[in-house]
Amino acid sequence: MRVEVKPAGNVIASMECKPTVIPLDGSTTCTVHFELKEPTTITVNLKAVKFGGKKVWPNGPSSVTVSKQTVALSPTNVEEDLTITIAINDELANYYFGKPIYETYINELGGHSYLIEASSAA
User: Fold this and answer.
1) Which CATH code, of 2.40.128, 3.30.420, 2.30.30, 2.60.40, is assigned to 2-110+113-117?
2) Which helix (H) or strand (E) holds 99?
3) pLDDT of residue 12
4) pLDDT in tens, 74-101
């Protein structure tokens, strides 16, 4: 799995997901860390989460959850985190590949790497 965060404005952003190798029917939790570069007040809004290039949040399967969409940073609160949890299950697989005719597509997710992206706007 690869992880990418697109920073915005005066904010440094990073993201780490654990575990990085996820079994089918397992999950990963990604912590997005925001830090101010300069003493100012800014609100950062999470706009989207992509899994393997496909937007899975905010309008996606319930197997992708976000702890909070907005982070407020200020000179007295220069660092803040939010978490994204992605469950590797039938719902995510069927959303990612499309509804199968007979069974689920969850086995199609196995053996591949997927980029997880979090986009934000200040």
Assistant:
1) 2.60.40
2) none
3) 87
4) 999 999 999 999 999 999 999 998 877 7
